[in-house]
Amino acid sequence: xxxxxxxxxxxxxxxxxxxxxxxxxxxxxxxxxxxxxxxxxxxxxxxxxxxxxxxxxxxxxxxxxxxxxxxxxxxxxxxxxxxxxxxxxxxxxxxxxxxxxxxxxxxxxxxxxxxxxxxxxxxxxxxxxxxxxxxxxxxxxxxxxxxxxxxxxxxxxxxxxxxxxxxxxxxxxxxxxxxxxxxxxxxxxxxxxxxxxxxxxxxxxxxxxxxxxxxxxxxxxxxxxxxxxxxxxxxxxxxxxxxxxxxxxxxxxxxxxxxxxxxxxxxxxxxxxxxxxxxxxxxxxxxxxxxxxxxxxxxxxxxxxxxxxxxxxxxxxxxxxxxxxxxxxxxxxxxxxxxxxxxxxxxxxxxxxxxxxxxxxxxxxxxxxxxxxxxxxxxxxxxxxxxxxxxxxxxxxxxxxxxxxxxxxxxxxxxxxxxxxxxxxxxxxxxxxxxxxxxxxxxxxxxxxxxxxxxxxxxxxxxxxxxxxxxxxxxxxxxxxx
Length: 482
Ligand SMILES: Cc1cc2nc3c(=O)[nH]c(=O)nc-3n(C[C@H](O)[C@H](O)[C@H](O)COP(=O)(O)OP(=O)(O)OC[C@H]3O[C@@H](n4cnc5c(N)ncnc54)[C@H](O)[C@@H]3O)c2cc1C
Known about the structure:
This protein is of the alpha/beta class. The protein contains 13 helices and 23 strands. The chain has helices at 14-25, 40-44, 47-66, 92-116, 201-213, 232-244, 334-348, 378-382, 399-404, 432-435, 437-445, 449-454, 464-481, and strands at 6-10, 29-34, 120-123, 125-128, 138-143, 149-154, 156-159, 163-165, 178-180, 193-197, 216-220, 248-250, 255-261, 264-269, 274-277, 279-282, 286-288, 321-323, 362-365, 370-375, 389-394, 410-415, 422-429. The strands form 6 sheets. A 5-stranded parallel beta sheet has the order 3-2-1-7-18, covered by helices on one side. A 5-stranded parallel beta sheet has the order 9-16-10-11-12, covered by helices on one side. It has a 5-stranded antiparallel beta sheet with strand order 19-20-23-22-21. The chain is globular and about 75 Å long. The chain starts with 5 loop residues before the first strand and ends with a helix. The chain binds flavin-adenine dinucleotide.
């Protein structure tokens, strides 16, 4: 190693750029090689664009679902017979232009931050050279779009190349009517009849968003219910809301093929049924970006799925090569990618490091209502992974929810039976992503239900339900002890 440690990061998403900022702060010489622009898929095609689209959908749902109850009159001179059923409509072209503008601006801000911190950004595709030099250094070859190549020498490499949408051979996107989630922002007109294939987080978020924007939506789910793998009570609330708002949710229906048919699309299910729509959005998972990068030749062990095997401080099996984010398959969240990237740099550069702890991860599904979770899950408790008590309170009993016309949702908390230490929670509510924070603080700091119950909450507020759930868990603990 020379006087200054040289770090080369391949892939500038949250895993890569957060690592670059940490490495620069710790005095390393950092180069980030990225194919598409800093911020990665997270900023350019995934999180940021989808949440910007959902911001419009959220305002529309809130207004549409509550204006009558709240006594709002829509001033409209259109004769009643000519009025559409919805009182608000959307200019999707305008929404999508805003989405792309925000994404590019954020990518630009991230590049500036990395450069300001002293890092260098190289636009191109990175590949790892097979051999390690006697001094332990390695080489990364960055190939630009024009074919020119630059060789970068690194004391350590971080691979954070993310993932791309999985494709089904008989349902390939054409970018016009059959789309993956990176292609929807080119649409100028709202799809009349959208078929969403896949009812995981991405499928559910888009299905809910386009329904709120005004499309008729069919959600094709191969499983018994939407959001398999998430909290079952939360998934049941969401499915109920989806159906009540008119979504056609098709359970136990696997899409085998999707084709263009005239002006629209035809989706053939594996049992032979055919459904028609104007557009189809494929949301059937992701494939890690780890092929043709020289990883295995350099000694990096991949799983059968193509994900890079890492330990809890982001080391791969090859000395001097770390990996972070979606390419590792640990947990596909921007926050987890960023944490893995930072941990890699703290570890390599000799700073204090705590290994990755997935038991405290906080996540949110941006549907309406939102579903936020932290810590141990209901499945962990039911499966005997941890002994914990649960209390669930419906939001419909909360005074603020009543005032705001909120009917759907709940707060659920899990605590250890003896100590009352909070180990997890679920919030299903508008802006659950904000409401989960006190439970997340409790999980991270091993606070007890008594401590949460004793803290003041504003009256009236949705967070009052969090204190109330904690109070009920605390009371039950006392009753069990006496
Ligand atoms: C629709 C959607 C919505 C999502 N919403 C959220 C959300 O709200 N919250 C959340 O926490 N997570 C969300 N996620 C997940 C989140 O986007 C990912 O977990 C996150 O992007 C992972 O970050 P990363 O750094 O691993 O990779 P990415 O963000 O994928 O970035 C990887 C970068 O590496 C580049 N690259 C790839 N190969 C090479 C190469 N050989 N050389 C150079 N560069 C290369 C890519 O071009 C890209 O720029 C969402 C995912 C999807 C699909």
